[in-house]
Please model this.
Amino acid sequence: MNLNLFPFVAAFALLAGCNGNVPSSPHQLKEQLIRLGQSTETTMHSAKQSAETAKSSAEGAAVTATSTADGVKESLTSFGENVTSASDTAASTLTKVGEAAQAGVQHVSNRLTSLGELVLEATSDKPAPTAAPAQN
Model:
């Protein structure tokens, strides 16, 4: 078999197998090859459109994923700031409570010291005041 004819024989066999019509003339073969070319062109165009749609969808998904990630990052940052603020507020409040408790303890201590001094003064060796005689 002449190898130069192989592409034509292969195309002929392909056409014959596709629709069951064996071209009876070179003109019919040419028409079938033209239809095959048009069909291939249409298929390629559809494939290109599908690829472009897939690319667009992938880009949209990437934008959505990036936007979602940015939103999550902002939410976590805000949450962290809120936790830090609450922690700072709690620490400040506990410090103030501690200071107030310390001041209260100091005040009670001072009062007890004063009371103790009064008790000591009252029970010292000073003569007790005499009561005035009762009158009838």
